[in-house]
Amino acid sequence: xxxxxxxxxxxxxxxxxxxxxxxxxxxxxxxxxxxxxxxxxxxxxxxxxxxxxxxxxxxxxxxxxxxxxxxxxxxxxxxxxxxxxxxxxxxxxxxxxxxxxxxxxxxxxxxxxxxxxxxxxxxxxxxxxxxxxxxxxxxxxxxxxxxxxxxxxxxxxxxxxxxxxxxxxxxxxxxxxxxxxxxxxxxxxxxxxxxxxxxxxxxxxxxxxxxxxxxxxxxxxxxxxxxxxxxxxxxxxxxxxxxxxxxxxxxxxxxxxxxxxxxxxxxxxxxxxxxxxxxxxxxxxxxxxxxxxxxxxxxxxxxxxxxxxxxxxxxxxxxxxxxxxxxxxxxxxxxxxxxxxxxxxxxxxxxxxxxxxxxxxxxxxxxxxx
Amino acid sequence: xxxxxxxxxxxxxxxxxxxxxxxxxxxxxxxxxxxxxxxxxxxxxxxxxxxxxxxxxxxxxxxxxxxxxxxxxxxxxxxxxxxxxxxxxxxxxxxxxxxxxxxxxxxxxxxxxxxxxxxxxxxxxxxxxxxxxxxxxxxxxxxxxxxxxxxxxxxxxxxxxxxxxxxxxxxxxxxxxxxxxxxxxxxxxxxxxxxxxxxxxxxxxxxxxxxxxxxxxxxxxxxxxxxxxxxxxxxxxxxxxxxx
Lengths: 370, 244
What we know:
The complex is a heterodimer.
Chain A: H1 7-33, H2 37-58, H3 63-87, H4 92-115, H5 127-130, H6 138-157, H7 159-167, H8 169-174, H9 179-201, H10 206-218, H11 224-248, H12 254-272, H13 278-306, E1 315-316, H14 317-323, H15 327-339, E2 343-345, E3 350-353, H16 355-369
Antiparallel strand pairs in A: 1-3, 2-3
Helix pairs in contact in A: 1-6, 1-9, 1-10, 1-11, 2-3, 2-4, 2-9, 2-10, 3-4, 3-9, 6-9, 9-10, 10-11, 10-12, 11-12, 13-15, 13-16
Chain B: E1 3-13, E2 18-28, E3 32-36, H1 43-50, E4 58-63, H2 68-71, E5 75-78, H3 92-97, H4 101-104, H5 112-124, H6 140-152, E6 158-162, H7 170-185, E7 189-193, H8 200-203, E8 206-211, E9 213-219, H9 220-223, H10 226-233
Parallel strand pairs in B: 3-7, 3-8, 5-6, 6-7
Antiparallel strand pairs in B: 1-2, 1-4, 8-9
């Protein structure tokens, strides 16, 4: 195996990717629950002109300067979306799509413009498109960690306010909580989370890092706090996995690789998560169908026996077969009822309800009446 | 008797067309009042405007003679059940605790005494055993009870409820009505958006008949008449009087 990177690169990439994944996982949870996933997409695309302008104005590629530029542009885009909705009849999705493409278009124009600059230091800005983990240096990671850490502190401090804002903003408003400020605050934290990941994941796919870890985490828990934690772990692992893969295998773009890792977790979660997963759902349905079928057989035996002097009067399988044409399952159901002690097999080959079976039938019938 | 809520010359409009037009309304203290009217009559808008969630185009609302902001802690709110996403990852007791967020103040988290209060409120609406159930696993009636419990922990003097009886089972309806009567016996004022004309006289003391304008308001025995109902619903209503 090729030891392509030395310890320093390895450490920087791992820490950087883990930081960005964890922060976007945490804030993404709120974005997904508030149905603002697409806002994340608009913000990340809209950050591109901010990166370009920050470079043109300052001539610097310091991470903090580029992130501030990206953040301001992303933030401006959010304000633009809200202004369009408030003043025109354009709906939310239309406003998002419009703002996203206009800002992204300006960003692409600026990048092309910058490439014609005489000084060489502009190289690398286009890594903001698809991200480049290998380009991360210690200074980047420190900036990401400090900004992200601040965002998490704010999130924890105003936890209950952000929770009620996400679940029932009108009720929060009726408690005279400053809903508009809280909304602005949470959206700003989302912008911070996006900006942190831009250099590594790129503007094109950054929104996936907002959506995917949270969507996967929702499958595993019904508790908001735990969902945030799971989402952070999934985000961090996807970030590390994708960044390392793309760094060790040259020419793999970082953003898409990270996003594919996260998407893999989503797919697995959607399929196998307990209770919410597809497999679980299928098992639940099958079991329920089986239970209903066996209840039906039990009740049929009850109905048949009612026409005789004793509720324990036995009947042949043939009689039941007429009522239940799926012979193969009938045999299986009878055996399972037998093993539960609800029916007994007579020497004649006929089935009869036991006292326990009769009790079960009466309970079932009582439940249907009420 | 002092008025709990006074609405004067209230007009609310979305875009051009008014949703509420020149409403005057007095809600006496300590009564159960039903708000009835056809779809689009502005019932929910009226509740939300009283709660200051919607800014009126004109007119004003006074609660105990003051603005909503200064008496907000004395007002409890039960929104329509459909107004939130019940798949939100949280439990019944957590939703009830939200009723205490206003009192708790910034940054402070609900502690043991708050949890005890929330549990007691869930007990009052008869679903204490479901406290830790994820809210999507509750039936519609149980979800409605959770919302009611959240309002009860607010320990308010006025309660505004938007269709709390909409689509609930008979047991839940009885539980809710019992609670409304308990609230009245404690001297609280309760305003309920209601859709079932048959039960207005048996459940409520006062009624507001609303259809963009105020058609009539006052004691049920005086204003809940066939003539005023016809005015409210545009003559398309048939009232089946109980034969008993």
